[in-house]
Model the fold of this input.
Amino acid sequence: MADTLLIRRAIEGDERALRQLWSQYAPHIDAVVFRLAGDRDLAADIAQEVWMQIFRALPTFRGDAQFGTWAHRIAVNRTLNALRKVRRIGKAEVDIDEETAAVENDSDRSFVAESIEAATARLPEGARTVFILHDVEGYTHEDIAEELGITTGASKSQLFKARAKLRRLLAHLVDEPTPATEQRRHAAPRS
Amino acid sequence: MLHLDPDRLAALADERASAEESAHLAACATCASELAAYRRLATLAAQARAPLAAPLSDWDALSAELTEGRGSDIDSARGARHWWGRGWPRVALRAAAAVLLAAGGVLVGRASVRQNASPSSAMGAGSPASGAQLASTTAAGSESPDSLHILTVRDALAVMQRAENDYRTAAAFIAAHDTTGQPDPNRYRTRLAALDKISNAALAAVNEAPSDPVLNQFLVSTNSTKAVTLQQLRRTLPTGYTLTSY
Done:
């Protein structure tokens, strides 16, 4: 069923249409929530609230954007609000530190996604949120500034610091093998 | 040679380098390699935007929350139509119950009129109550949601479904056992013509609001009554005749 018809039926209260919307978009929407929350249990709770918000706001959906884009926006906004309450994030500047956070192993996730999740979990909340919003979700610094209540400059600063740290944490994924390292790798078995 | 600042290299993953920076990157393999690593990081980050294999949210819980009209602290007053709003499902249920009772009253009322034409009726109706009167009487004596153990909309819908099933069973019983007096095919034809009009109006309403449970149930009830009346009309036909129109 086309999204427009599906959404119309959902607005009219057709539970099957609501369920179909949820089935179609939940893997994407819940993934956004999970990436931002970084914790499966917390993300599950927030995802539930996000979907309630999406369903309640459905009558205000005007079709200016794709439903997925519109719902994604709600998901990000709602998740950030929930995280603010939980973690009191949103302070303008957060220093990068070496604190680690627990990362849950999820066999559903690809190796790259898991590696990035594990690495981003080691970032302070502010930098982590900016990195996910900008580099993963594709938000602009202006959007991020508005969502987080910070300046675009602060958003950029957080992002570059996050990238610098992630570049080190994910060296095994992002470094190109140099002739020297290749040589060492080949030479290793002999030593 | 002074290398570019790590934050600046991180920025250059998606920002344009100045002429001076470009010249440096062309000459410095270390910085060029670092920039390549940042660009790969950006590519990996974009790839991390993958859907989950299974949602974290739970449909059953969402469905329950929607029908309950609970929904945490979300602003529900945006001036939009909210079918799951707190108040209206119960109002709709009351309306549906009234429709069902009135429809039941119409059928049973007609049966009562006919019974009263014959004092020996096995149905034992007391007075020649009209359908409306019967509906009104029944509604006045109806039980409260509490006594029916209705705590949620789902409970209420289940009660409605049971009531409708009971109604259909009773109507079918009347059709099968109402042998008082001589069967009058014209009466059934008149009833069917009226039911056709009601059914068409209900169908048009359902087409306007395909998901409206009240309208759908009204249409189903009307069509059930039509089916019962058709049975009664068929029984009036001489053996070997098939009903092709009414």
